[in-house]
TrEMBL record:
The Thiamine phosphate synthase/TenI domain, residue ranges: 22-174
Pfam families: TMP-TENI
Leader peptide range in chain numbering: none
Record-given protein name: Thiamine phosphate synthase
GO biological process, one term: thiamine biosynthetic process
Organism annotation: Novosphingobium pentaromativorans
């Protein structure tokens, strides 16, 4: 059972945080400060693929303690089994990686209708629809835009979290109030 949700039942539309900070090498130096500034009860999706395994785990433990101090949900980018072993509140990955494993909060990244169908088969509790806007992570890549984001979100059947080029201002222009950012929250 996830700790950051009272009464959480997997695959039953949990009361997810509105704002999610996603970690990586670009925002690592600002994470402690960013976690302290986020509204209480926000979420952290911990990636940190750039670190060797032991360092990645140590950094996770530190950030998890800080996040918990502010009442934030902590989700590990990895399998459901890894998320349980690391005492995370859930797992974040592509649908294929979360298709099996123990019951836990499952956040699945989605870029298309095909991936949305795969997310449903993988028991997604929420989907991160991406990229909504042009993003520094993928310069020149096509983005969903507001209309396509809305159409995918309407078909999601689970909470949709906007990701990609997100800022506070852009989040206010979308029908979904749930959003995530890498650099947009850590600067």
């Amino acid at each position: 059972m996830a700790r950051c949700y009272s009464g959480f039942v997997p695959n039953r539309h949990p009361p997810l945080p509105q704002i999610w900070l996603i970690s990586d090498a670009r925002n690592d130096a600002a994470l402690e400060r960013a976690l302290a500034r986020l509204p209480r009860g926000s979420g952290l999706i911990y990636r940190h693929y750039h670190l060797p395994p032991a360092d990645r785990r140590a950094r996770f433990e530190l950030l998890r303690r800080i996040a918990r101090r502010f009442g934030h949900c902590v989700v590990l980018s990895g399998s459901a089994r890894e998320a349980r072993a690391w005492r995370a509140d859930g797992a974040y990955a592509a649908a294929e990686k979360l298709a099996s494993g123990p019951a836990t909060l499952r956040l699945i990244t989605v870029h298309s209708l095909r991936e949305l169908a795969a997310a449903h088969r993988s028991r997604a509790d929420a989907v991160l629809l991406s990229p909504v806007f042009p993003t520094r992570s993928h310069p020149g890549a096509a983005s969903l835009g507001r209309v396509r984001f809305h159409l995918l979100a309407a078909r999601a059947g689970v909470p949709a979290i906007a990701l990609g080029g997100m800022t506070v201002h852009r989040a206010r222009t979308l029908p979904s109030r749930k959003w995530a950012a890498i650099q947009g929250l850590a600067s």
